[in-house]
Amino acid sequence: MNEQPNQSDLNIQQIDPTLYNDDLAPLKPEHRTWGAFEIFNVWSNDIQSLFGYTLAASLFLSYGLNGWAVMAAIILAGVVVMFLVNLTGKPSVKYGIPFPVMVRASMGVRGANLPAMLRAIVGIFWYGVQTYFASTAVALLITALFGVGNGGTFLGLSGVAWLSFVIVWLFQIAIFWQGIERIKHFLNWAGPLVYAVMVVLMLVVWMQAGSELLPAISTIFSGSGEQGGLGAFLAIVGTMVAYFAAVVINFGDFTRFVKTERQMKLGNLLGLPLNVAFFSFIALIITAGTLVLFGEALTNPADIVERVDSLPLTIVAALTFFAATVGINLVANFIPPAYDLANLFPSKISFKMGGLITAVIAFFVGALWISVISQIGVPGFVNALGAIVAPFYGIIVVDYYLIKRQHLNMQELFSSATGSAYYYVNGWNTRALIAFGVAAMFSLSTVLVPALSSLGGYGWLIGAGLGGIFYYGLMKRFEAAPVMAEQKTH
Question: Which of 9, 159, 319, 433 sits at a 20 to 30 Å CA gap from 96?
Answer without folding.
Answer: 433
